[in-house]
Fold each of these.
Amino acid sequence: MIAGNWKMFKTRDEALQFIYAVNMEVPKKEFVDTVVCAQAPVLRDLVKRQGENLRIGAQNMHEEVEGAFTGEVSAAMLENIGVDYVIIGHSERREYYNETDERVNLKLHQAFRYGLTPILCVGEALETREANETNAFVKKQVEIALNGLGPRQVKELVIAYEPIWAIGTGRTATNEQANETISVIREVLKSLYDQETAENTRILYGGSVKPENIDGLMAEPHIDGALVGGASLDVKSFLRIADAAYTK
Ligand code: PGA
């Protein structure tokens, strides 16, 4: 899977231009799930125009069905307009909007209730990696996030391992670092569920993924794809990254 995370970029006109340019060019969905996670105001327009091989995702949702939560969007609203995926627990949401592991867990349950496929983000800060605490930190994030979910749900969801120090910094984790931490996540899935769940849950890498480094990342055995920020804004580089997953 290759998922673009547009963050707070692109007006409606820019978003539509992008969709028209990539719709016919992305790999067939039998081979690669290609997803664009866009900002809320353009989601409906993109869903209406998504080609056969492209799916649209949101970048966040609230954990409640509805209520007095000014500025928020619910899973029901996303489902109702035909969105398929939703990013949950991105490190920017955790850092700037007080998203705790416990809220991430509630959001995952709510996403499943409405048939949305969550892309759960986990990943450590630089201090954590330098203190050699990455594995324990990521393990805890995954355990709390998945609390109460069954193996069938976990196999459906997508996990994105995104070291915070690699996001938007141009500093990618090495292929080996990414692969190793993702293998730790698979171990956690094995201990919480079983071997089959550990093998079949899709786990992506994210953090400064670009056309120049995608091939090396995709060559690693545990990496099933990428969550791409900056490089997903440009048609050519997004397509090049999606093609790299095709050849895996
Ligand atoms: P980046 O962002 O590719 O721009 O580093 C990745 C992400 O935040 O998902």
Amino acid sequence: MSLAGKIAIVTGGSRGIGRGICIALAKAGADVVTCYAHGADGANETVALCKEYGVRAEAVQADVAKNDDVARMVSYVKETYGSIDIFVNNAGITKDNLLMKMTEDDFDAVLDTNLKGAFLCIRHIAKIMLKQKSGHIINISSVVGVSGNAGQANYAASKAGMIGLTKSVAKELGSRGITCNAVAPGFIETDMTAKLPEDIIAQMKNSIPMKSLGQVEDVANLVAFLASEEARYITGQVICVDGGMAV
Ligand code: NDP
């Protein structure tokens, strides 16, 4: 499987799963541009790790919830690199709380970054991919978008929304050679999950058929496959990487 000569954008590559995806795409030969909201240092570290594979890589500041930022990032990549072959919607946040304690601001913030951000990015990227008549879009959803989760009404709604977005985009753009799939990670070891209390982590582990947490690479390897020509006939799918959690 080779992505040599392909140009990829991965949102939220300053750490965690986004960083892992950038590295997996670079390892397969793609040039990678990533964006971050605040974490410039982390994003620059990701860039350095990608460059070890001999590809071009860079990081740009862009808040995916802001249309002007997204427009600037997408036109910069198109002008500098000539095409955009792979787009990974990875940037995401959580603001967990029980429904009765969840504020309207926390609901809006999570929906704005996770769902509206994905929509804004796809709308700008699709213009380019439609002209190219090719492209792979991969949305990082979550198993909680499939099954829901107490304390995560905002997050689960945003991730379920990404699944509807994925299937609609797949139907709308499929005839133009563009695929759109969702990857739904389970419980992956990153900063996002590190902030959970020990007892919750132990409880989660116990509920996973494989009895262990996933690693960033487990998600990143699937994304690299979905970004490749080997996956050309797969679209509109939601693939869980969760050790059997959602079964
Ligand atoms: P992290 O919190 O470790 O990283 C999130 C990344 O998103 C950071 O690079 C962050 O950049 C970026 N980001 C956040 N908000 C914005 C924004 N508005 N604009 C641009 N970039 C932004 O998360 P994970 O690596 O754990 O998660 C990555 C994705 O995978 C998320 O979509 C998450 O919902 C999903 N996921 C994770 C699971 C897990 O178990 N870890 C399980 C299921 C899904 P910055 O440095 O600027 O903050």
Amino acid sequence: MAEQLFDNHGRVINYLRLAVTDRCNLRCFYCMPEEGINYVPREELLTYEEMVRLLRLLASMGVSKVRITGGEPFIRRDMMDFLRAISQLDGIEQINITTNGTVTAPLVPELKVLGIHSINLSLDTLDRERFHRITRRDALPQVMETLEALLHYGIKTKINAVVMDGQNTDDLIPMVELAREHPLGVRFIEEMPFNGEGNHYPKLTWDHRRILEHLREAYPAIEKIPDPPHSTSYNYQIPGHQGTVGIIAAYSRTFCGTCNRIRLTPQGLLKTCLYDDGVFNVRNLMRAGASEAQLRDAFLEAFAHRAKDGWEAERNRQFGTPVSESMSTIGG
Ligand code: SAM
Ligand code: SF4
């Protein structure tokens, strides 16, 4: 039986978000610049063998849940082999994946067989032109195909939509309507400044309060439901809807008090908070010949110095630089 891991603030750590690539076939404007992206050289990416080793070690320390993300995870070669390998690991009880859904549809039957616990599908609009404008690619039909396949195969699915002033706020209600007909979670996320450039807006106009007000106007009977432990979203139910609605205050950072997650970037940088700039590089330690015991000690040391919340983590960044890196290097 694995031990339980705690940080210096008494928060359990049992959830790893693993970004398997920084590459992507979309260019969502809130995540990546259109051009001039410096991808991580291939030899600097964690190999699948290194990732399996890290997952095995972290599972023995108490991490039981993993989310595979990116960049777009399904454009990394041999991704399904990797999923097959990690689905066999002792102690990993849940594998979740975040995907943009552009190339995922044909893989859904095998994801079902592998017992993938849930898929988060990123989808900001149901309108093809708006999709094209936001992602800079005309790929809505492929994403909708993935959504249909996920529903058909009964894989637990959440739709993640970033709410952007002047871009997709007309989509909020049509997206909530998807949860009327289907047992889906539809979650609206505040935009964060992780776009490779910095803040898009001088002030966040669509914060979690405004999103809720907007939903209330359309659905006066919307009601708060209990949030699962460690949830990053405030969750709601609308009478007559099969699914639920969630709001993620990602910019406002209201969820740090129960944060159970750590992150590994594609090049092996450990982040103990979304807003920090990396604690140490696990890949370098491994490639320098570190033993399991040495890796374990390095993780424990990092967990003993975790920032209290995203505001503290951002203040502690080297040279005090505010966040501006692309989310594709972090994984969300
Ligand atoms: N490519 C996959 C996808 O889009 O689902 C996985 C990686 S993507 C970086 C993970 C999540 O981060 C997506 O749901 C995306 O909407 C979200 N994201 C990216 N940039 C963001 C930003 N600036 N603010 C809020 N969420 C963001
Ligand atoms: Fe790619 Fe996901 Fe970033 Fe969009 S949000 S550019 S799909 S990594």
Amino acid sequence: MPERVLLVGFMASGKSSTGKELASRLGWDFQDFDTVIAARAGKSVSRIFAEDGEGEFRRLESEVAEELLARSDTVVASGGGWPAQPGAWKMVTEDTLSVWLKVSPAVAVRRASGQGSTRPLLHGGDVTERATALLLDREASYRRARYTLDSEQYGPLELAGEIMKLMKDMKLMKEWTN
Ligand code: S3P
């Protein structure tokens, strides 16, 4: 069995809702990068971007990632930009099951606006155009996850179920090879 599950993917790909559902089914802890960053900084992610800049946000994010990715029995939802940061994947150890929740830019933008999103990178101008460029830039880093699941066709409940199946398969594989 993996020690932890890491969910990666673009903004509004369902990382938090799937992560919460999965953690509750496993009886594990759920941790979300952005929530921990905001609590530690004492202000929202939007305010960190606006007042301290993206560089400071990425510094905090890397610090939080290192801590959360060392925890056991934890489902971790990363921020959408983290996997593309230099050195990010070096923090992901063999005992981590990483999953990319894949979504198209158009659906991500639609979902984010429906969520009354306060995401600083999805504000102002042609948001779909920006999301498309960002996703193109990040796709290779998301692809480094061990598994990819379609987060457009499936909702959080189904995605959590699929990840449970992947975990069972990993356990069986391990027993079989031991
Ligand atoms: C970001 C995604 C956000 C948050 C920040 C930057 C990004 O997280 O970390 O606004 O660079 O894509 P979510 O993916 O949870 O929205």
